[in-house]
Design a protein that fits this description.
Blueprint (H helix, E strand, L loop, with lengths): L5 E7 L3 E7 L5 E7 L5 H15 L7 E7 L2 H8 L5 E6 L5 H4 L24 E4 L2 E2 L5 E3 L3 H14 L3 E5 L8 H12 L6 E3 H4 L5 H31 L6 E4 L5 E2 L1 H6 L7 H17 L3 E7 L4 E7 L2 E2 L1 E2 L2 E3 L2 E3 L3 E2 L2 E3 L5 E5 L5 E7 L18 H8 L5 E2 L4 E2 L2 H12 L6 H23 L11 E5 L3 H12 L4 E3 L6 H7 L3 E8 L6 H16 L5 E10 L6 E4 L4 H16 L8 E12 L19 E7 L2 E9 L8 E3 L2 E5 L2 E5 L3 E5 L5 E5 L5
Parallel strand pairs: 1-4, 4-11, 5-6, 5-9, 9-10, 13-25, 25-26, 32-34
Antiparallel strand pairs: 1-2, 2-3, 7-8, 11-12, 13-14, 14-15, 14-20, 16-19, 17-18, 21-22, 23-24, 26-37, 27-30, 28-29, 28-30, 31-32, 33-36, 34-35, 36-37
Helix pairs in contact: 2-7, 9-14, 10-11, 10-12, 11-12, 12-13
Pfam family, one: Hydant_A_C
Enzyme class: ligase
Protein name: Acetophenone carboxylase gamma subunit
Length: 666
């Protein structure tokens, strides 16, 4: 490789850490290393070194380095975060425990809520009160803060969150308390809820601030280690961190606003799928990212991913902008098990990277989706270009032993595992399409991740989708998507008037310039609007003309919910500003043409009750314009594509595979 500048993205997953390398001409290289859950930065460094060695390149050639991390996500899921305390308005100490009226399963008496990140004994109250319009009803006294500080010191907290009632309209009491308690040494770190999100809804605002505080020390320490490692390796690029909203953030701000990275690991894939849907002219698409432990699904309309201002992690609300992703516990490492009624189930528990599936030969004893693919012949005896060997003999023996309790043979058991996981994934796709008012039969499936191309064929058949699209490097698609992400900062403020928003947006722009350290950014102005009396809002683009604003809202409401109400009055409750610094897009390189398409070998693949002698192709050798008739298996370094007998795959000019039914080629 020459000395051209390289763009590199590192995506940490539950099983593998993916490294995408983009050359100056737009072409891509792929590298994968096993993840190191105990210390994710070890896999990041090993991956960077391995990717550069594979490319015969130097780390000093990296001019853009982007990272999607699961540290915040895993910290919440495993409950290994900081010891967080909460200071709140007197009378509201049970705010996190009471939560809101939504119930996870209305008629199941055995269901209980996820425990708050702050237990009751770490919640302290103080006398103060702010009205809903920001007027002070009860002042916050110095003597009260001195007494509270003594209580808080005794709790030996890592970090304190201050969240007072109605502070989103006037944060004066929160700021006063933070400043004085810091002086009194009440806790090593102190954070106010309004500094994390200044939007209405006390429970959601407090929950967001608590999640931010809970993961902040882990994220801060992790990014600090990464920065040190990058400096020692003499990588010239600044490190950028992927946010939940599909944009990039500096490590400094990511350490301060750590909750913005909670969905970091999955946002990159959605950004990439949106970019590809625009490139290919797909009106409706479903981003479908299957990794080792989970599947992340998102709807893309007219090239734009769905966004939400009310996400969640482990049932804990996050009042921050994020790509709207539905995550299910279904992946290559999902474990097969038998329920109390004797039924076959798969997931959500996963074998992960350690010990992994039975076929990994690393001590795993529980059968997984990967083992089923191997036993049926969809997967060959090795992965990652031969670097990772799979143990077919042990997987078959374990499949026979486990299947006997169900009265099934080896192949029947493996097919049963795949049928169950297909049904689970199909439900997830319907969740983001049919339940959003979009006919799933009009959506193209963009399947990626290490296991996405193995399942796209079956899901297209199951749901009646017109095609499945598989990008050239599906196994690192999330990493590649990050390379196209812009630097993005989001700002919001509550509003109680339908006029005068110009001044509000100008204030938000000044705030953006201060936080980003530049005035060279693009802005998008949005408002959260609703019919008066509703308790939920829709974010739409803002326009100074009120009648046009109303038309936009009515149209958005009808698209989302199937109706509009011309009689009801509309109100705007939040003004939002999205500030972005776009990355210069690199043209999608064209795929090679010419040459004959011949399988490298044939392998028996078990399909719907019978063994088929199936051609095995190397995907890199398939030229643009070629059509592969199913059944077939396509191998590549980062993934494997399976094509059903009644389907075919066409390779387009950019190297994307388009799977469709043989009689209705897309």
């Amino acid at each position: 490789m020459n000395s051209a500048a390289l763009q590199v993205a590192v995506d940490t997953g539950g099983t593998f850490t993916d490294i995408g390398v983009r050359r100056s001409d737009g072409s891509l290289a792929v590298w994968k290393v096993p993840s190191t859950p105990h210390a994710p930065d070890e896999a990041v460094m090993a991956g960077l070194k391995g990717a550069m060695a594979q490319q015969d390149a130097s780390l000093t050639q990296i001019q853009r380095l982007v990272h999607g991390t699961t540290v915040a996500t895993n910290t919440v899921l495993t409950r290994t975060g900081a010891r967080v305390g909460l200071l709140t308005t007197a009378g509201f100490r049970d705010l996190l425990a009471i939560a809101h009226q939504a119930r996870p399963s209305l008629y199941d008496s055995r269901i209980t809520r996820v425990a708050p990140l702050v237990p009751g004994e770490l919640v302290v109250e103080v006398a103060e009160r702010m009205a809903a319009d920001g007027q002070v009803l009860q002042a916050l006294e110095e003597s009260a803060l001195v007494q509270v500080a003594e209580k808080l010191r005794a709790l030996e907290l890592d970090i304190l969150v201050i969240s007072f009632l109605n502070a989103y309209t006037n944060p004066a009491h929160e700021e006063q308390a933070a400043k004085r308690l810091q002086e009194l040494g009440a806790a090593p770190r102190i954070s106010t809820a309004t500094s994390v999100t200044s939007e209405m809804r006390e429970y959601e605002r407090t929950s967001t601030a608590v999640v931010n505080a809970y993961v902040q020390p882990r994220i801060s320490e992790y990014l600090s280690r990464l920065d040190t490692d990058i400096e020692q390796l003499q990588i010239p690029s600044k490190l950028w961190i992927m946010q939940s909203n599909g944009g990039l953030l500096s490590p400094r701000l990511a350490s301060e606003h750590s909750a913005r990275t909670v969905l970091s690991g999955l946002a990159g894939g959605v950004v990439g799928a949106a970019h590809w849907s625009r490139l290919l002219g797909l009106d409706h698409a479903v981003s479908f990212d299957i990794g080792g432990t989970s599947t992340d699904i998102a709807l893309i309309r007219r090239g734009q991913p769905e966004e939400t201002m009310a996400g969640e992690i482990d049932s804990l609300p996050l009042r921050l902008p994020s790509v709207s992703v539905h995550t299910i516990g279904a992946g290559g490492g999902s474990i097969a098990w038998v329920d109390s009624g004797g039924g076959l189930r798969v997931g959500p528990r996963s074998a992960g990277a350690e010990p992994g599936p039975v076929s990994y030969g690393s001590g795993g004893t529980e059968l997984t989706v990967t083992d089923a693919h191997l036993v049926l012949g969809r997967l060959g005896p090795s992965l990652l270009g031969g670097r990772f060997q799979l143990d077919l003999h042990t997987a078959r023996a374990r499949m026979a032993e486990w299947g006997s309790q169900l009265g099934l043979g080896v192949e029947e058991t493996a097919e049963g595992i795949l049928s169950v996981i297909t049904a689970t994934m199909a439900r997830g796709i319907r969740k983001v399409s049919v339940e959003q008012g979009v006919d799933v039969r009009s959506c193209h499936l963009i399947a990626f991740g290490g296991a996405g191309p193995l399942h796209g064929s079956d899901l297209m058949q199951e749901l009646g989708m017109p095609s499945t699209v598989i990008p050239p490097t599906p196994g690192i698609a999330s990493a590649v998507g990050m390379l196209d992400a812009p630097v993005r900062h989001d700002f919001a403020t509550p509003v109680t008037t339908t006029t005068g928003l110009e001044d509000v947006f100008e204030a938000l722009e000044k705030q953006a310039a201060q936080e980003m350290g530049t005035e060279e950014f693009l802005i998008t102005r949005l408002v959260d609007a609703r019919y008066i009396g509703q308790s939920y809002e829709l974010s739409i683009e803002w326009t100074p003309d009120w009648s046009t604003q109303r038309e936009r809202f009515d149209a958005a409401h009808e698209e989302r919910y199937g109706f509009q109400d011309p009689v009801a009055s509309m109100e705007v409750v939040v003004a939002r500003l999205v500030a972005t610094v776009p990355h210069q897009e690199v043209p999608q390189p064209t795929w090679h043409t010419g040459g004959t398409v011949e399988p490298g070998e044939h392998r028996p693949v078990y399909i719907e009750g019978a063994w088929w002698e199936t051609p095995i192709f190397e995907r890199a050798g398939i030229p643009a314009g070629a059509v592969i008739k199913g059944p077939a298996v396509l191998n590549q370094f980062d993934s494997t594509t399976y094509i059903r007998p009644d389907q075919e795959a066409r390779c387009d000019e950019y190297g994307f595979l388009h799977l469709s039914r043989k009689e209705t080629r897309a």
